[in-house]
MBL fold metallo-hydrolase
Amino acid sequence: MTNRTETFTDSKHFRLNQVAEGVYAAISVPGTGSVGNAAIIDLGDSTLVVDTFTTIEAAEDLQAAAIELTGKPVSYVINTHWHSDHTSGNQVFIPGAQIISTSITREIMATFGKDRLARHLADPEPIYRAMDELDEKIQQETDEKLKREMQWENASDSEYMNMLPNLVYTLPTITFDGQMTIHGSSRTVQLITYGGGHTQSDAFLYLPEEKIAVMGDLVLSKHHPVMMYANPNAWLNILERVEALGVETIIPGHGEVCSMKELHEVKGYINDIVALVAEAVHSKKSIDDLVVPQAYQDWYFTTYFKSNLKRVYDWITESPGSTPFNREKE
């Protein structure tokens, strides 16, 4: 395999990792304008990008890398889900590229996403206040790992706010439900959705010949899964269906390129969080007293642990019986 990543001048926002011939992972550098990972796929006669980062500058670097690595402009952009660290750079790739997502993802972006951006533009002060409050917590934090993560979070938020006045919220131009196939001259890729687990609708890209999957935030490597909009049972069901595809290599939404081992770890995390909260509910204990299990203490996105507990608590109490042992009911 000829490694072409050396041909691209490094971006401060990501590191390139050649996963296979013509398949590249753009791994986010913490504390920059990327936040999430992206991918570049050479289809032979065209180029495809998966997800577009949080800021315009990061997306511009991604576009430059794609052109330099493949020798062609980007023709397709996939948004795996609606979160801003996977979609805010969309504007960089039009009008040359078609932007593709699930129907539900586009609907959420066209409503909630656009409304949220309008609020940010009309009144950015709440975000600046939150950043100031986090900065105060950083000064007091004694856990060096958590302190570093909080610093990264504020640095990324700062890049987002600096870019905000120039952001043109750009919606997908093509939508699909179920599965969509793109045939290039040298490879075929499958866009697949099994519904929503991490968000209300999650898609991933599968390269059947190479057995590589670009999973968006359905799989994170050594990061706490983000469960703010999650349905734990649906997420577990999706991951079980991905297992059946025979995937060998995963480009995750966050963290390093990994394998099915990390997918299994995400399944374990979701089951563990649900079990922890279910036990607390059963014992009438406060979820505020729950601490990060030993297995996940070295994972990043530590600040999401508490919000994950709250989301699972709401899910359990709103839908009694919704545990991993009752998945067939959903």
About this structure: The chain has eight helices and twelve strands. The longest strand covers residues 14-20. Residues 56 and 89 are 5 Å apart (CA to CA). Residues 123-166 form one domain.
